[in-house]
Design brief:
The protein is an alpha+beta fold. The protein has helices spanning about 15-30, 75-85, 95-100, 115, 140-145, 165-175, 180-195, 225-230, 235-240, 255-260, 270-280, 295-300, 375-389, and strands at about 10, 35-40, 45-50, 65-70, 195-200, 265-270, 285, 290, 305-310, 315-320, 325, 340, 350, 355-365. A seven-stranded antiparallel β-sheet has the order 1-3-2-14-13-12-11, sandwiched between helices. A three-stranded antiparallel β-sheet has the order 4-6-5. It is globular and about 55 Å long. The two termini are about 30 Å apart.
């Protein structure tokens, strides 16, 4: 492993151990390029980055480097839904079909919006094979989901909606607000709060986008995800591999992927923006005079909805409304009210209202693990909480 010596940025002296842990991650893990930002009490105390944005190590990671954060995108999409609910425009207990009439097919007439956020809708996967390229067509995916019959009675089980979450929640946001998720994020969250966050990257920003790299290690035969993908008829296989090009190696770095609107998986952002969003949520929904949602909405968003074996991932999951909570498979700190969302390969955003922490970590070297967490998080979080005291 190569030691990164070009760690750049700013760190409050009290949090020097966090920077040390970030630096050490480049020694302990096959880290290529990454960034870390931590807010405490609404102020940035760590904002650092290092390594490289490409496999050839020709492009240093810069202050404004953005990277695809996969499912960490889901957290900002959830924030959009909660903002609409806070404004009285969206009722989370109302049927989805109230806002999206075509959704009232295949027994889904009464399925409430909240089940989309908590992964309880039974729509984790499309049963019928989708054509290659269909994931880049909003209409194709939302039409297919409107027709899809739930895999289980909604509300009785939960299963990770790996890709479908974005089109399901996103279509509700579009119907209610009249804006695409891309535009809603920009207008209602990114611009007011000063976030560098895009769902569907502008072509003018391609030059500052880091390439995502797959795990260089040989596949672990005991990896829980690989085992679950062995059956092409299973819900797990279909959730991740239908459309069939959803997870093709290198697809994430293509122009087509970067430009598309895939609200469960293709948010491009910085650690600073992830941390800033969660800093607002850690303070009850407001930061620097910008209120995203009420304190009551934040509390509702972080309230547990289900906990137990996941029908798709086959490991215990604990879900709030669009956000994950600490569980035996995902440790996001010592405090019970912390919530957030991680992304495939290692990115993480979280809010801790008890410690008033907003945390964002992004990277381009993806790692496969046998848990739902990432080993790079632990030393960073431990150092943060030790500094906060």
């Amino acid at each position: 492993m190569t030691t990164a010596t070009n760690i750049t940025g700013t760190t409050d002296p009290r949090f020097r151990a966090v920077e040390d842990a970030f630096r050490e991650n480049f020694n302990r893990f096959p880290e290529l390029g990454s960034a870390l930002c931590v807010y405490v009490d609404g102020k940035p105390v760590v904002d650092i980055w290092g390594g490289f944005a490409d496999a050839a190590r020709t492009r240093p990671w810069e202050r404004d480097t953005v990277v695809n954060v996969w499912s960490t995108t889901k957290g900002i999409v959830a924030a959009c839904a909660h903002r609409l609910a806070d404004q009285g425009k969206l009722d989370l207990d109302a049927p989805v079909a109230k806002y999206w009439p075509e959704f009232a097919q295949a027994g889904k007439e009464k399925l409430p919006v909240r089940y989309l956020l908590s992964h309880q809708a039974g729509l984790s996967a499309l049963i019928d094979p989708m054509p290659i390229g269909s994931m880049f067509s909003w209409q194709a995916m939302t039409d297919a989901l409107a027709k899809q019959e739930p895999w289980w009675e909604p509300g009785t089980k939960h299963g990770y909606h790996a890709f479908t979450y974005g089109w399901l929640v996103g279509e509700v946001i579009r119907r209610v607000s009249g804006k695409s998720v891309r535009d809603y994020v920009r207008d209602e969250l990114a611009v007011p709060l000063g976030l560098d966050f895009q769902i569907g990257l502008a072509e003018s920003d391609y030059a500052r986008a880091a390439d995502c790299l797959t795990d260089p290690s040989p596949p672990d035969p005991d990896n829980f995800l690989l085992a679950s993908l062995s059956d092409p008829t299973s819900i797990t296989f279909k959730a991740i591999m239908n459309p069939p090009d959803a997870m093709l190696p290198g697809n994430v770095n293509s122009r087509e992927w970067r430009t598309a609107e895939i609200p469960a998986a293709n948010g491009h952002t910085t650690a600073r923006s992830v941390a800033r969003l969660y800093a607002a949520l850690s303070l009850g929904g407001e930061l620097d005079g910008v209120r995203l949602m009420s304190r009551e909405s934040v509390a509702r968003a972080a309230t547990e909805q289900c906990y137990g074996p996941d029908e798709v991932i086959k490991l215990p999951m604990r879900w709030a409304l669009g956000f994950g909570l600490s569980s035996e498979g995902v440790d996001i700190g010592p405090n019970p009210h912390a919530f957030g969302h991680s992304g495939f390969g290692g990115s993480l955003g979280l809010a801790d209202p008890d410690a008033r922490i907003g945390f964002g970590y992004v990277m381009n070297q993806m790692l496969n693990t046998n848990t739902l967490g990432d080993d790079r998080w632990a030393p960073l979080l431990e150092a943060v909480y030790a500094a906060v005291g």
